[in-house]
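Fold this sequence, please.
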Amino acid sequence: MGRWAQARRTGGGDNPLNFMTFALNTDIDEMQVTYNKPISAEALDPTDFRTNPNDILGNTIVQVFNNTIRVTFDDEITGEPTLTYEGTGSNVVTPQTIAQT
């Protein structure tokens, strides 16, 4: 069996879904989120983003780069270790939790 057949059989190859790869706390109430593929801020609902453990919800999203957005939250997020996305964005992994840096 060739290498291609093995990769296909075990689920190898490109992942068709978009997912968060990096979350950077850029201000006391902002986080910059990078995805593995281009993402549209307009296609996402800010309230689908929340921090953990205090469940602070996002309230705005702006486009930074083609694969990066900035989410502003309702309150200070300094000290919140993770970010969770639970939404209905097309072809986006949900739910997904990522550590913020």
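The chain has one helix and seven strands. The beta strands are 20-27, 30-35, 49-52, 58-65, 68-73, 82-85, 96-99.
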